[in-house]
Amino acid sequence: MALRPYIVGNWKMNGTRAQLSEARAIGRAAARWPGVEVGLAPPATLLHEMASEVPDIAIGGQDCHFHPSGAHTGDISAAQLADAGAKFVILGHSERRAARDATGAGHGEDDSLIRAKAQAAQGAGLSVILCVGETEAERDAGRAEAVVTGQLAGSLPQGEHAAETLSVAYEPVWAIGTGRVPSVADVAAMHKAIRSALLAAYGDAGAMVRILYGGSVNAGNAAELLGVDEVGGALVGGASLTAESFAAIINAAAPLDEGA
Ligand code: PGA
Question: Which atom of ligand 1 is nearest to the CA of 238?
Fold first, then answer.
């Protein structure tokens, strides 16, 4: 596949200004592999400083509101992310799609809200990483592909140029932060199904959308996962928190760019 590999770190609710040195080290590592596009999504508190201190990689947000401004306490708009130096935003992550659980975690975001956010983000000049993925119960019930294609049908941004600034991240919920990953065959089948959905939604432009794999990607399994057909990169949580582990994943993506 001739698309430039895209490796994105999602720091989630981790990191304070003390970790800016780690981000600078990630930036230096990324500069060694110019054939790999690298992004890092820190907590919003670090966005602006990281964007100015780490110019070699794209800095992004982890969520945004669908309105440009207004009375939405605690929320951040796409325009505000862009103003802080963000180039992209992750939307529809399973930790935001999840219903509020007994501990109070989860945000209950549904497909139509995620689509509205994606369209607002693209309208504000950000590119979007749209996350989809099934739960373990859904996979066990044989519904994984139906769930994921249903999420795409409901949440892919619409608009003439929507595909141009879009990536999709396939993240099985049961693989996130667990150390478990799907088989190569299951990843290949799901990415093929996602590609078909993108072609159906966008026509030829759907061929240029990178499809990332996410869920327990680490230095040890990255090369195998990135070698799967239609895997155009990775969305990395835990292993993106240190330059040492994240650089190894960026390194694993470098051969994918050969001949592209
Ligand atoms: P993980 O998280 O790499 O820690 O499993 C991935 C993600 O949630 O994007």
Answer: 4
- List the domains of the chain with CATH numbers: 6-245 (3.20.20.70)
SS3 of residue 169 by DSSP: strand
Nearest alpha-carbon partner for 120 in 183, 75, 56 = 75
Q: Is 10 in the pocket of ligand 1 (CB under 6 A)?
A: yes
Helices marked H in the chain — which ranges? Answer: 20-31, 44-53, 78-83, 94-97, 111-123, 136-140, 144-155, 184-202, 222-226, 243-253
Q: Model confidence over 168-222: pLDDT tens digits?
A: 999 999 999 999 999 999 999 999 999 999 999 999 999 999 999 999 999 999 9
Of ligand 1's listed atoms, the one at least distance from the Cα of 176 is 5
- 3-class DSSP assignment, residue 89: strand
177 lines ligand 1 (CB under 6 A): yes
